[in-house]
Amino acid sequence: MTVEGGLDEPGELEPAQGSLHLAAPEDAWTVADWEREAAAVLRKGRRLGADDADDLVWAKLTRTTLDGIGVTPLGIPADLDDLETSGRPTRQGDWDVRAYVDGRDAELANEESLLDLDGGVTSLWLRVDPDTDLAVLLKGVLLDLAPVVLDGADPAAAAAYLTGRELHPETNLGVPAAAATAEIAAAARKLEIRGFVVDATRVHDRGASDAQELGWSMAAGAAYLRTLADAGLSVDEAASLVEFRYAVTDEQFPSIAKLRAARRLWSRVLEISQAEPREMRLHAVTSRPMMSKYDPWVNMLRTTVAAFAAGVGGADSVTVVPFDSPLGRPDALGRRIARNTSHLLIDESHVAHVADPAGGSYAVEKLTDDLARAAWDVFGRLDDGADLDVEIAAAVKRREAEIARRERPITGLTEFPHLDEVLPERTPTDEWDGVRRYGASFEALRDEPPASAVFLATLGTVAQHTARATFATNLLAAGGIRAATGEHDGQRVVCLAGTDAAYDEQGADTAARLRSNGAEWVIVAGKPRDWADDNCAMGVDALDFLTRTREKL
Q1: What domains does the chain contain, in order, with CATH numbers?
Q2: CB count, 10 Å around CB of 84?
C-alpha cells in the first residue's frame, strides 16, 4: 500500500449557513470589539505600541507549535470555512483507567498491580521480560474484568499462559506492530483479544513533534497492515487486532487535537486500504519528557492537564505517569495520585459524561484539521523514504531553543526554582533510559551546582530594585547558582540590580568599586551597559547565559 490521495473527506462538516443570536443587541460583540479590548490589555503590558493597529493582537497572541501550526487565541466561525473534518471521539462514558507497572520484578509488580486495582484502576499496562513469570505477576488479577497489556513478553509464552482463561476482550499481547506475524495474529484471534500496539510514545520520548508522532504512527500502522495482508489476513482482521498509543502533554488544546486528528488519519488509512470503517482503539499516556525531576510536585499539575486533554480528546484508555517517576520507581503515594487523577476527572468533574466536549469549538476543529494535514504530510514523506531522525532532530533543536529562552517555561526548573528543596528518595530504575526530558539541559546544571555564589548588588530602594533583583535571582537559580546579598566579600562574579536611572547615576562607580574589591565579572540586570561584562533580561538565552556565568565562577 502506498499513500495515495489527500486526507480530505468531503461533506463531514459544512460551514454554518446562519447563526442564532441569543444575546441582547447591547451584549453582542464583534471580532473588532474583541481586537480593541485585547489590544488595550496588550498596550498596558507594553506588548503593543500606542500607534499599533488593534488587529496586531492576532500575531501577538497566536502561539505557533513546533510544526508551524498557529494555535489561535480566539475561535471564530470563519475558522470553519472550507474546513473538512472528522475523527470525533467515539468513546461513550468513563475511560479505562490504565496503570503502568514495571513488571520485571514479578512479586513486587504483583503487589503494586493489586493495590492499583483495589484503588480503582480498570486495566494494567505491564512491562515484562520474555522470561517473566506471568503466573506470579498476574496472581489474583481477574483477567475477565481487568484487561492487561503486556509489553516485552514472549508472545508464544504469553498466549500459552492466557489460553483457557476467561479474558477481557481488550487484553493485548502487546507485540510491537513492527514485529507482527501471522502466527501471533492467529494466537490473538483464537484468544479473542488484541495482539499488537503502535506505540507512538517511543518517538515522542525522543522529542518528536505532534505531527511527527502522528505521521510516524500512520506509517507504522500502514506497514503493519501490509505485513499481515501479505501473510494472508484481511485488512479488516488486521485492523481489529491493533491499538494505538499516544502521548498527551500539558499543552491542552494541541493534545486534544492530536487524538482527534489520529482518528481522522487512521480512518483515511483504512479507507485507502479498502477496509471497513472501524473505531480506532486509542490509549493516551501523559508525556514523560514534559516532567521534571526537580520540584516533581509540579508534575501533578502537568499530568492533570494532560489527562484532562486525553479525556476530552476521547481516549479509550488513559495512563497517568506518577509524579515521582523521574526520580525512580514511584511509591504508593505517586501511584495513588496518578490513578486518582482520572477518578477526579471522571467522577467529580464529570468530563467523561459529556460526548465530545470539544466538538464544534471553532478553534479545536481548526487545530485538528491543521494538525491532521501536517501529520499526513509527514506520513507521505516517510512513505517516500524521508529520514525521521533528521526531522525529529530539527524539532528538538527548535524546542530546546525556546526552552533556553524561557519561551516554553518549565515551572520549578527554568522558572521559580527552589535550590534548597529536598527531593523524595526513590529506588533507581532504567525506566527512563532513552527519554530526554524537555528540561534536561537545565537539570544537568542543577545536578552539579557551583561552589561559589554570585553577589547581588542592589541599587536604590527595595521598591526600585525588587523586580530586577528577583528576576536575576530566579534566573541564576535555574542554573543552580545562588545569589548572595549583604556585604561584598570578594565574590568573583557580581550582578547589579536596579532601575535604569540608578544605573545611569551609580552603575559605573558601583561596578568600579566592586572590581577593586575582587570582582572579575560584572553582570547588569537589564539592557547592556558599557561598564558591565554581561547582562540578563527578558528574552535572553538563559542556558547560554548561565553556562557563561558558571564558567566565570
Answers
A1: 96-379 (3.20.20.240), 446-552 (3.40.50.280)
A2: 18
